[in-house]
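Appendix B. One record, verbatim.
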Amino acid sequence: MTGTWDDSGRFGRDRNWDVLPADEAPVDWTVDPGQGWLQGPLDLEFLRGRCLALSLAPGQMALLVRENSLQTVYLDGGHLLDIGPGPEQIAPACGLIFLAGNGALNLHWNSDRPLRIGREPGTALIGHCHLMVDGPQSFFDAFLRGPATIDPDFILRLVEQMVHGSLEEILADVCNDSHDPGPLEIQSRLTGLSPADVADELAACGLGCTNLAVYTAAPPMHEGLTAETVRETAGHHDRDGHN
């Protein structure tokens, strides 16, 4: 719908109104986080000659990709995408990948599905790690470049494997082939673990850690150290380093 602005700065009424034909009006598009943290790619070919009115909620982002290359990143807010072959338009061969989980990727480990560290079968660890995409280009290069279709569950497993590898490196001085540490020794190292410890490796993949808490599945008991004490102190750090 078009109109004119009056002298007061308000949109004009009963002056030069015109209703755009249905095949010319922008196509409204929003992202439902209930459909998953990673969605797409949306093929833009069906919008050739049309405009896409993209509305992203806070924390959401859209990646415009073409031929396995990231073209543009749209952050929260409204964006009008003109789709067509012109030099000032977005090529219909492009697609949109949506990160719709309000920025957070949550990994959880529990007694039924623990994180294992050390020699087989390994010491079982439980806890959680909350991540967000800080660098869309690096995240795309690390996890999304290549496949024509995207499996969010598979991508999440890749992210989890990377976090597991980071924790293994951190605990390498405790868990190695010549030493089989007990829960107390591992827990002692985990107590001081914070997001800063995994920041560098995660940043290389476009991720940031906002919260990290990891502890042994069977809290150690030693010289007055209780399970409750362990769970209160082990790994409970946020991104700013507050307990």
